[in-house]
Amino acid sequence: MQFNSIDFAIFFVTFFILYWTVTRNNLKAQNVLLLVSSYIFYAWWDYRFLFLLIFSTVLDYITGLKIYNSNSKFRKLWLLISVVTNLGFLGFFKYYNFFIESFAAVLNSVGFQPNIWTLNIILPVGISFYTFHGLSYVFDIYNRKIEPTRNFIDYAVFVGFFPLLVAGPIERATHLLPQVKVKRVFKYAKAIDGLRQILWGLFKKIVIADNCATYANTIFNNHEAYNGATLLLGAVFFAFQIYGDFSGYSDIALGAARLLGFDLIRNFAFPYFSRDIAEFWRRWHISLTSWFRDYLYVPLGGSKGKITKTIRNIFIIFLISGFWHGANWTFLVWGFLNALYFMPLLILGKNRENLNLVAEGRLLPSGKEVLQIVSTFLLTVIAWIFFRADNVGIAYQYLLEIFSSSLFSVPQILPKKFIAILFLFYSVEWIQRDKQHPLEFENLRIPRFVRWAIYYIIIGMLYFYSGDPQVFIYFQF
Amino acid sequence: MKKLILKTFYFALPLIFLLTPACYVLFSSKENFYNIDKAIRNFENQKYLIGYLYNESNFRYIKYKTLSEKKATVVALGNSRVLPFRKEMFEAEFYNAGFAVENVQDFQAFLSCLPEKNLPDYLILGLDPWMFNDAWNDLTPKPKSRWTKNMPFKPGEGIKKAKDLYRDLINGQMRLSKQTKTYSNSIEAIGLNAVIHSTGFRNDGSGYYGELVQKLIQKDTSISDYNYREIFSRIRNGNHRFQYGVQVSEKALLILDQLLLFCKSKGIHVIGFNPPYADAVYARMKDSGKYEYVEKLYPALKPIFGRYDFEIYTYATVSACGSNDLETTDGFHGGEITYLRIIIDMLKNKSLLNKISNLEKREKDLSVAVNNYVVYPY
Asked: What ipTM does this complex have?
């Protein structure tokens, strides 16, 4: 059940009505309904994997309690049980074939012909996300940041909350669990804002991402046939595809949660307006970046100590982040490149320079800011080529052609109308960059007829300018 | 809560108002919001003309579903260029699965979707030259859902298709008031192409081109490929299946080999053939000097078919089977008469099809053909 499907619309409307009518006055009923609906939502893909989700939930619920109630020796043991089991499942479903095939390739290269035994493993949707949910919970208990919840339903809702179950944002128990524990009260303004955010998310997904996907797929799948200019354009299309796809999903998740009275953590903050790569990573997939920061980077020593140690930590974080995305060398190279981009900022101590809003209080950016934004964007585009390509060799060929004289040719694919839409989309995001999402109209005093006209235009574009439907990219992670 | 529901309702009213007429047209023509399974289950009792305008991809499902429900002794499999084969051409249970495949890889993928017990005994394989041209081919594997997914009756699909209907009405490409009806009232039409243009598939899966045949007989110049102008333009531009090519695709030949191996293992006898172009079209292709692979194709196919004791026939042009340009429906589609001549030619060449088709009867059929394009009435 995808967020941009009729199935989900019917599911959500039915659930929404039940939630705010039948269970309105009872917290326990609200949470039970939430849990049952979340499990139905998940089982829609593949009911068999629902048991895996339930197992993971039960495991972290129990280990959370055990860690809290045990003495220091057993605390570590229970933590280990949780981490090993969670990562074991993740590793098996996500990385088993990758390791077996890579191992066989190494043996092949030294002359052995092993009989490799790979399995036709289906990746359970959302496993990377709910595993990280559960791990953050047990880590926080272990670090004595929170106390475990004794109410299993509350905990299961925290892990399985359907808006964020399959592709995040990766929530923290410190933020979401307290909201699960109090009765939600319907607030009109919050619900309306949720609807607006959903609308913008759908626009990003259906109009921007799905149309970009058509061009990006054509160009990436036949890259040998195109000149450098076309390939660069293809990579730019992919950059907008993945942004529209993933941030669109996050917007729908956040909006749906707001309709139910929840506030989820922000996952994207207009990353393509970043002035350097450090700022980009503070604005892109924020929930994952901060997860790695808190549970890996900081325990490794973070930026305390020698610069060499910090550099090592940065590389570890980015490589693991790349590997988290999938079992392919392309993701590792993507992570490595981002770590490399980060180095000059780190060594010069400029990685926390651009913490404020770009061009704050001004309509247009300065010349320097434009240069910074464009160069940062191009760096990310180069990294995205590795993310998108089927293998590292193809990405390398793709880059070689971009950096050839054919870069200065006329692109063979140039959808002018769509590029104009892309430019309009980018401009709207720029104007509203100080908001949570571009349709946040609070305090803007825009007359209702103008707001409604904007909504109708967006709906019209969703209807008449939708691209070929694509599965959300991050579902595969 | 009440305020939100009311506002959402007011907001949605204009949208509902806009969508309702188009949805009604799609519903009443059975283009959408209609489950085709109902018709497929009723094929024994009722004659249908199934012609989608906006849901062409669902034709693949119909072909799959029909063959999943009931075994046919002989099946014609290919794209639109096998559609003129009719059940009347055989003395055994026949089904035309034309339109179910696009490239050489789809053949086995389609057959693999069918229950093993329903696989045919004889398979007539339409092998188009472009299936062996790398400049056209997309040989990436397709999911089974390409054949097994029934889409148009889902409400969401209907709402999506409403925009195509509005687009065509606004562009003047379609007029709901202008309908050509060339079939009898006892036949139930499903889909806008069937309702408006009398075009679609019969129960046996063969193609029915009511409006086109009528226009061809009337020598109507509004036909898109009148005097092969459309196909000549494709040859000029090297596009839309007429991409230029020198070599026969090795990869496609390999896939074909695997298909034949699969058929052999399942006890299916394969009769392959290259469907013909109009004489004028083939001459234009040859003159261009850009379609070398077309001439190299038959010599490349022959040894592969020979390896499995299967039959392969080539009809580069319609005259190769005794037909002529006056019997073609466009530059690369022969009419029913052309395809009957192909069957006759195969039978004369001692094809195993002789077991399920009678040469004398086919020759008699030819002598009483309805017109230049059609042999048998509906």
From this structure: 0.75
